[in-house]
Amino acid sequence: MTAESLTPQTTNEQPQQDPFLYDSEQLHAITSAAVIKQGLEYFKENRVTDMLRDESRLWADVEDTEHNEEPCAVELTREGDSLHVSCPCRNSSDEVCKHAVALLYHYAAELPGSNDEVNNALESAIEERIKRGRSEVKVELLSGKLWFGSWRAASIASMTHRPQNYTVHIRSLHERSNYCTCPDLVTNQLGTCKHIEAVLHRIKKEPNYDKISQQPPPQPFVYLAWDVMDAPQIKLQRVAGQSTEQSELLDHHFDRAGLFKGPLPDAFFHFSDNIYGHDDIHIGEDVQLHLRRLAADASHTVRAQQIRDQINNSGGALPGIRARLYPYQMEGVAFLAATGRALLADDMGLGKTLQAIAAASWLERNADVGTILVICPASLKQQWAREIAKFTDHKVQIIQGGPEARQAQYRKGHPFCIVNYELVLRDLTVINQTLRPDLLILDEAQRIKNWRTKIASTIKLVPSRYAFVLTGTPLENRLEDLYSLLQVVDPQVLGPLWRYLIDFHVTDERGKVLGYRNLSELRRRIAPVMLRRDRSLVRDQLPDRTELRLDVAMTEAQQELHDSALATAGRLASTAKRRPLTPSEQNRMMASLQQARMACNAAGLVDKESIGSPKLDEVTTLLEELCLQDGLKVVVFSQWERMTLMVEELAKKLRIGSVRLHGGVPTAKRGDLMDRFLEDDATQLFISTDAGGVGLNLQSGSVLINLDIPWNPAILDQRIARIHRLGQKKKVQIILIIASDSYEERVLQLVQGKRDLFDNVVDPQAEQDVVGVSKRMLETVIEELNEKEPSTKGCDTTSDQAPEAVATETNEPTSTKTIDEQKKSEENIAVCQTIGAIQECWGHRIERILGTGGGLLVVMEPFDDEDVECASDLSRHGVGVALIDPRTLIGLQRLGAASPIASATPLYDAEGEQPKTSPLQVQAEEKLKAAELLVEQCCFTSAIELLASAMLLAAAARAGLKRAPRREEAAVWIYSQALPQGLLVPDQANALLRALALIDAAELPESLLEEVIKDARELISH
């Protein structure tokens, strides 16, 4: 779309003071709902950068790798009521494109003033809902009057990607006495939500709003008030012209301020009986919901004590459970069954699964619980089925297979159904309409710790009377983890997020979290619904455990890969301090950090060529001693699937029987691997990625070798708990193999900071009320890079091109002498190091590098503000770096001896390289490398996008193109040009088209992704 002119149909609306501030109704007047949704998603993903504005124009870059490797330069111009849009996406329709919509959202969010005017968090929370209501919600009147009626509100975009409709009841245009059926209003303690604010915004656009706003409510109404002391309270809004009888009745129950006078809920139920048949008094749904909750809480308190007494008096033998439970387990069963909706956060290895099964069985027998839905990681479905069959007589249905098969499985009517988290995303409708579980059990519930994810949002849409949330790590990194889990248990416990952040977080003036406070109050709040016991309860039943740390040096190849990756991550981290990273920058950051971690294990994980590593040598020694000499069984964990493959090859050479578990092993086969390790004496080695670190029982092994250290301490604890748990008979040894002088060592220090927060929140005996928070990963990378001393080992760099640039100067005798002198000079060593950093930063984009009096002039085209900022960062290390384009260089050269670059020394010339590699081919190789790193981290969605882009770039490079075709043009280009011209063979074309199609797949099996990686390697390497 090169240029468009569209006019929003703003009927009955006053002219806007800001021509680029659009609300939801105006956006729908100029483009479709689908485009608005895409634009909103782009805005939320921080794809809009470098926004500028003058009196009549607004422009910015919007990242969209589907259309172009370069960001879309969007320009908006407003003339009168018309919006002119210029965007390179070349949309053939007449509607505004998603890039323009993203820019409009970004502009509205960046408007100055709102943050300065907000003086407290409550006002900020309300302001946020007002702003979101303007642009994210569509509304329509259902019944009644504008100022006292019912409206339908529909969110444009939902976290679960499912359309959400709510009913809004407007009762006042001035007071926060309105009601909405959305879950946010129930818990936010604000008296408003974005749906209510959307309706109020719509009403304000009426031409006769001044008259409407003066209209009184047609009748008295009772509502739940939050803007009062000791909120919430039931409050009455009186109206003029009430009858004497009506006034006397209301005055008997409400004071002059309108607050209800009697004890709740009983007195209000009496009031409801008195006004039965009085249609002229309106009692809001919010009041009725509040009263039902109070009544349920009162009834539950009495019932809960009865349940505890019944279970605790059973002596450890519960009807229907084929096991005698320990006293602490009986306490856990009683807690779950009596509380009904609870978080069981026992330390790993204490038998949370058995406690949940026993409590579920008790509710099935005594509380009319008919259907129990267990949601767990895919790797644990078989284990849950075995445990249920082992301890009870209940029938179990594992949900698996295609959509039709799964629907039939849900209808079988078995008491227990077991499904993995990912399938709930697909099956939410059939779960809620067909299965309708009475009890929901979430195992390894840390999977929903991030409340912003689709999985977490979807899980919270499954209604059930009872809910057991099981996790040994209710808090892994941040207090928000605990908040998300308790939203499933009871959203009222911790209150709204805005208040939670105020009460328990210490922040600086920019809102950055510095630490946590009031933890004693937090422990008090969660105590009624969370039970945690640590392993000290069963310490006398667990074997001794020793830990051994082995430090190994990295090879030169590992060190180069490690340092190169951290340098790249550091530059992106510097960008992140100035502005949010775009999605592609986030992917590059993740890939760089993962490369550094992988390099700590083995160079072959990164370059796919190097053989062996010091860590593997250490593993060989350990396996010879532990397995071959001592006859022990050993568990080896690594985060990287390729590393586990290397260990498996070692085991074969040593003739040690082994099994290997990773994400690509089908769920149905994982139980067989575990059984072989447990029962077969010849199988001495269990090798696993962290897919096996959750929930599996591997206590036949007595030694655990960790080949790497996860960022998250909970993952490390999960690994250890696989062998150090109830049922273990032998002494347990935990071995950590660490790469010395690496950022893997820094990870160990960060892990301890996370443990401090965990212990002081979930431990009932904790005494600390305030703890600090570890520095975030980006800041840590920057700090480590700034503190790291530059190497003085000649001019070696991580770039293949940097040594060649210097070698060019060694051909002449005089230059050789100069370089020899440079190696003795710290200043020239810095120049040499900077050349390497320049090559790492801009790679194939560089055309020439010139030395100018101690500084460096880099010639390349194009370059942008980010490149200029990068040059500025490089200059801070003592060697000035400047950028110019080739045309400017030619102009300066025309000045001859008067030119400021007349004495410049050529240090690098891309034209001198033979053969010259296509920039598209270089980009393809870089994207393939990044995709492989993301696959190692199980980031499949991001990886498939990079793979498809890499394959398309490689195909375009074969054709000699300067730019790859856009995704939507790829098929036409392949069949009209690439195949007829012999650029691609049919198999390659099919592989490329398959990769492009998989970008939109809802779920991508790892085995299929491996096939795409293989296709990409073959296409790019030829």
From TrEMBL:
SUPFAM superfamilies (alphabetical): P-loop containing nucleoside triphosphate hydrolases (SSF52540)
Record field: compositional bias (Polar residues): 808-817
Signal peptide range in chain numbering: none
Alphabetized UniProt keyword annotations: ATP-binding, Helicase, Hydrolase, Nucleotide-binding
Ranges where the Helicase ATP-binding domain occurs: 333-492
GO function term, MF aspect, one: helicase activity
Any Pfam family: SNF2-rel_dom
Entries under Gene3D superfamilies matching the protein: P-loop containing nucleotide triphosphate hydrolases, Tandem AAA-ATPase domain
Location of the Helicase C-terminal domain: 618-769
PROSITE patterns, alphabetized: HELICASE_ATP_BIND_1, HELICASE_CTER, ZF_SWIM
Parts of the chain that traverse the membrane: none
Domain SWIM-type: residue ranges: 72-108, 166-204
Alphabetized CDD domains for the sequence: DEXHc_Snf, SF2_C_SNF
Keyword Zinc-finger: no
Stored InterPro entries: Helicase_ATP-bd, Helicase_C-like, P-loop_NTPase, SNF2-like_sf, SNF2/RAD54-like_C, SNF2_N, Znf_SWIM
ATP-binding in keyword set: yes
Region (Disordered): 788-822
Protein name: SWF/SNF family helicase
Organism field: hydrothermal vent metagenome
